[in-house]
Amino acid sequence: MQFIIYILLYPILWCISILPFRLLYVLSDGFYFLTYYIISYRKKIVRENLALTLPNLSDKERLTIEKKSYQNMCDVFLEMIKTLTISKTEIDKRYKFKNIEVYLELEKKGKSIALLCAHYASYEWVVSINSKITFEGYAIYKKINNRYFDKLVRDIRSKFKATLITTKETIPTMENNFKNRKLGLYGLVSDQSPRFGSFYHWNKFMGIEVPIHTGGEMLAKKYDMNVIFLRTKKLRRGFYEAELEILSENAKEEPNYEITDRFLKLVEQQIYEKPEYYLWTHKRWKHRKLS
Known about the structure:
Elements: H1 2-17, H2 21-39, H3 43-53, H4 59-82, H5 88-94, E1 95-97, H6 100-107, E2 113-117, E3 136-141, H7 147-157, E4 162-166, H8 167-179, E5 184-189, E6 202-205, E7 208-211, H9 215-222, E8 226-236, E9 239-248, H10 258-273
Parallel strand pairs: 1-9, 2-5, 2-8, 3-4, 3-5
Antiparallel strand pairs: 6-7, 8-9
Helix pairs in contact: 1-4, 2-4, 3-4
């Protein structure tokens, strides 16, 4: 059954991927109408998240952000599919690194690097960094149940020399590379809520006290990695600019949770500037402390 579903859907995905961007975004508008107005995908969660974190805004202002966030979510989904056939020249034109030299200088320090980012703007096209670096780049993702689509996602995201590893493969891969002195760049989307039972650290995120995902920091400490933050700015539809900022060059000596807290402050700044580009459908504040 998994294979049948795959062979039925793959030709559709491939046809979408070869669409010119102008038509791709017409299709995205259609997905937005379906997702927002017909299916109402996670609309209740989005409204609760916006009301919790942006209480200073009016209902009308939050509604505008809500609609734009769904439009952005659909764009990101279609752009991920587009990656199946996009050329390096095209993605370099659309996703530019403002200061890649900051990362390249960090490579010279002779330690692996943990790159922390958020579900903001085009987090899918971050993989294009792998065509610009010397280290082997590892993108960590959650495995898809359908093994054929799982392979497709791997193929899409590994197009620009990225090596995809599942969340279960992350620690064994890092452990093996550390023992063999193999340097790597590990991409970690670290703004999600931690699993229940893994609440080691609480802090305020967007004004709400919640359990904080500390995996990126803990791995950086354990395997002596430098830590860098990637901030993505959406310039206009289909065009992005990424900026890199060093979070730590001595993670092992940092007080616990300090790197994580600095990371979240940077994510907050990003969201407050343009909240419509954040992925509000995540249940990020589901375990918040009630006052």
